[in-house]
Every structure is written in structure tokens, then in C-alpha cells.
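<amino_acid_chain>
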Amino acid sequence: MPDSDVAALDGEVSGATVDDVRIVFTPSGKRGDFPEGTTVLEAARALGVDLDSVCGGRGICGRCQCVQSVGEFPKFGLKSRQENLTEFNDVETRYKTKRGMKDDRRLGCQSRLKGDAVIDIPAESQVHKQVVRKRAEVRDIEIDPAVRLFYIEVAEPDMHHPSGDLERVVSALGDQWGITGLERADLPVLQGLQKALRDGEWKVTVAVRWDNKIVHIWPGFHDRSFGAAVDIGSTTMSVHLTNLQTGEVVSSVGAMNPQIRFGEDLMSRVSYVMMNPGGDAELTTTVRETLGYLLTQASLEAEIDVNDILELVLVGNPIMHHLMLGVDPTELGWAPFALTTNQPVRVRARELGLEGKTNPGARAYFLPCVAGHVGADAAAVVLSEGPQYRDEMTLVVDVGTNAEIVYGNKERLLACSSPTGPALEGAQISSGQRAAPGAIERVRIDRETLEPRFRVIGSDVWSDDEAFAESVRKSGVSGICGSGIIEVMAELFLAGVITADGIIDGGLAARSDRIVADGRTFAYILHRGEPEIRVTQADVRAIQLAKAALYAGAQLLVDKIGKAPERVVLAGAFGSHIDTKYAMVLGLIPDCPLDKVASVGNAAGTGARIALLNVKARDEVRETIARIEKIETAVEPRFQEHFVDAMAIPNKTAPFPNLQKEVALPEPKFAEAAASQSGAEGGRRRRRRR
């Protein structure tokens, strides 16, 4: 319809003639007058209604499904009769037979106006549809991906009007979709262009990036496009393969980060690079190979062609960020912990060694890092949890080998990192393991008998139930994961087995045979059998060190702002399973009302997925990160003070009034000085200085 025929004003099209009919779209409320015979899709486009289409109105994709509302609508001043739309046609019948469609649905590109009509656009037919997130306090994800698909019919070559195939593709995109300003295509696109056009008999589907770059061309109609949200953790890596058009996660896979063999913590890996020429390239190769493996596994699991993976969004701490990019991380190993860049980075996926794992034209987008030890994963957590939009003071902790902490509200945000080490994820624990079937994840200890009962991953049955043995017959009881070690530590403290200063009280061995001598210290037997699972004094000390580092970093930010947290969010692989009550009992985080403490799972992965599905979110997170104040714990004198106090359970000086309203804490009990010294040395006698 020519521009002169239609004038848009406040969501309404005016300039009607006596032969025009009125259409009203719900839920948007946009309305306008159009000549009889106008398709619903054409009217929607003229009014700016959010109605999807990939095939350009040819009745192939089925994205423009809509529902006619029939009846009288006084508020709109019209009657919407069923006969006011053309009858179901052959194209719609063919689509419904082959692909399936609800009985009340019509294809907007095939339904033509014969009279006034009220048309409802279902959520799944909207271009910028939202993916509803389960938690009520977080926003939904609006789908506006970096890459979109467009089906076009291309003019065949003509000797009288010579032009290149690419030029005719560009022209068709302009004529049929209004896409202008397209950049030149990459070499892989040119290499497959002519075959695609001829195989598709001059009908092709083009993937176009938001910045007007042609990513790929398929022969014929193609409606599958996927992206991968990648979280490169220092201990674990995960890939969430996501449908770019619906937002659905079609496959999630994970693996241990193979760099662990070079060092369990990040500084060990930086040290490896410093001491071994070429070590950075070695670390880069291992992490890229694992990413390629995970992309392949996710594709196989979801039964999709890797050519349909068009975009990656990656997040990780600064050292993992640098190593994935092939950047030497040495400068992050010492003050002032300088980043190569704190801006977003966009590269071709094949530059990351992912040839054959994604589409040849796929791009990889790295979210910006916040500071030297606060990475893109923290940026993703901020994007996911949105403390920058809240009035309440919110503490967000991404728990991992290196805890990344953000604190504040819409007025002010601070961030820091704290070196917790891998103990909270089950590493450096005598019977520790990653969260997998057979790992103990829940623990309760009788306050009188000191007898334990527990639950393992893969079974809902507690160990004191007769059905337990059968329920774990396949997995067995194999170890204890991070959430389990937190719970057993807290339960042992509440039962009086562990003193406030973190010593297993050997005096209770007379009361329970669960408490046994272990060298010069004591241990608690959680599970008898094969394997025997113990909590040793060294385990307790490892958790104390980790939780003290995390608490100290968080409390440092609270001090800087001068207001206590009103809400606490625990994120990360470990944070997704932790019982928030036990985290508070242990003193992992500052005191807060327990009903305001939440575990949110892999928020970094969710933030990566938001940036994958909504290109505007990338600008949003960049702007937010620019105003976050970075605090370096290494140069803050109060960090050590908080750390020492936090070694006690729950804390030596902090009163934890909110926790005490919910949990009956035992009277503080401290070990004898000699026992404390013995425990501090992990059972070794201190040598007298000569």
C-alpha cells in the first residue's frame, strides 16, 4: 500500500475511504482502516504490529498465525463477523495438514479483510515475544536476536541486465523485506551462494545479522536458527543451545574445565603460563577443544545441524575470558591486574578454533569484563538479576572458584572478587566430588545421637529409609558435593560436633562412634561402606577458608555503602543447590532475612542467554558495567579483618540477628588452645623455633 494511502498516528491508521474496512489488533490495541482484500499481515506491518514472518507472506513458515475474535465490540465501535475474513484457502489447508495448526488459527498472510475485524496476535506469533522466566521477581526475556532469517525469491540471471548473484540477493532483501544498507558478505557466504540459489530454484533463506551482515544462505525455505549461551567457568563449562526464534533451550551440556590439570585455582594457571613458555597457548587450546566438544554434544542431543548455530555469547571470569580469546593472562597475575580490554569483544567463531562446530559465518560475542578479577560472568549475572533496577540493597554472589560479588541498588553498584578456591564446589575435600548421581547433597544430624541421614543426587529417598538401598543401587553413594559439604558442616556445628572456631570435638567420641581419631585430629564418619565418606579436620578448614574469603569480600562492599543487605542472591553451579539457611548458619554471607535469600542457579548462563536472545541487552549491560565501582580486595585493609572474623562459625563478631530468629544456634563453644593449634596445622605438630 502506498505511503500516501496510509497515515500513522498514535498507533492508528487514518485516511479511510468509504470502501475501507477497519481492523483492530489485540492485545496491542493498534487499529486502522484498509482497503478490502488487504491481508492481515500487510495491515499488521503498516500499523507496526508485532506479527512474525520468515517466509514473507508465502504461507510456508506459519509464524503469522492469528485468531479472529468474533462478536460485537462497542469499545472499538465495530462488529467482527466470521465472514469478514476470507475463507480458509488451499495454502492454509496445506500448512495445517503438513505442519499442524489449531482450529481457531488463521495465517495472517493468507487471511484477507472483507469487513471490520478484531484480530488477536498470540504470544508465540509475536516477533518480540517474551520467554517467561519461572521466578516472579526477574524480568522475562524479550526475543530480539542478533540474527534473523528471511525467505526471498531472487531474480534469475539475465544477459540483458547483467548483475552478480549476491547483488540480486541484496536487491530481493530490499524489495521483499525492506532491508537496506547490507554489507558485503564473508567469503564462506560467497563460496556457497551460487549452489544455494540453483539448488533452491532461486528461492533461498538468508540469515542476516542486526548489523546488516549476511551470515549464511540456504536453498529453499529454512526456519531453524540456533545460538549457544556459553559459561566458561574455571571449574566447569556449560553450553545452553537455544532456539533463536522461540527462546527455548533445546539442549544443555556441561563438562569439567580441562585446565584443572594445570591448576585448580586461577592464579595457579597464571603461574603455569609464567613458568612455561607457550603455556598460554596450551591452556587456550584445551579450553577451545572442550567448547567444540560441548557444541557437538549439544547439537547431537538436540538433533540439529551445526550449520544452524549462528551466534555464540560467551561469559567467564577475566582469566578464562583472556584464555578463550588466546590472550596472555599474565598481567592479571599481579597488581594492578590490568585487563586487555573491558569492552565487549566480537569475533568470528572460526577464530576460536570452532570450524565445523558452528555455521561458518557464526559470530562469538564476549560480554564485557567488569574489572581485573570481576569478569564477564559477573556482568551476565547483573544482566540476569537486575540489581541496577531495584530500590532494595541487593547482594549478588556468583559462587565459584573465584567468587564475584556485586552489591547495591539502582543508585549505586559496587563489585569485587574473592578467592574462595574450589572447596565450595567439592574439590579439595577428602570425599568431595562434582554434583553427579551418587553424590551426597542433603544432610541432617540428630542433635542427641549424632547419627546422620542424607540424600544423594538421583534419589529422593533419605538414607534412613528402607527403600534407600534400592533407590541408589545403580549410582551407589560415591562422595559428597559442594551443597552436601555445606550442609554437613552446618549440621555438625548445630549438633555441637564442630566448635565455633572450626574444630571437630574429639571429646564427643565417647558419645558416638561416628567421631573417630584421624592422626592428631578427629573426623566424622558420614557414610560407612565402600567408599567410606568422612568429614576431616582438613575438610573443615578448607571450607572455613573459602567461606571466610567470600564473606569478607561481601562485607567489604556492605561497609563501603554503609547499608545492610535487604536481599541476597546466590548464583553459580554451587549456588543453585545450596540451602540458603545452611549458607547463613555457616556464615557464608552477611546476615539478611532468610526469606530474602534465594538460590538462582546459573545466573551467568542465564545472562548469556539474555544477551543471545536480545541484542539490545548487550548495550544495556555495557552501560551498567561502566558505572559499577570496582573494589580491589587485595589492597583493602579491612578485608583481612573481616576474613579473620569470618573463620569462626558463623562469625566471631557479627551477631546475625535475622538468622537467630529462624535457627536456634548453639552456645559458642571453642576448642582448647592446643587442639586449635593442632587443627590449624592439619594434624601436624608445630616445630619449636630454635
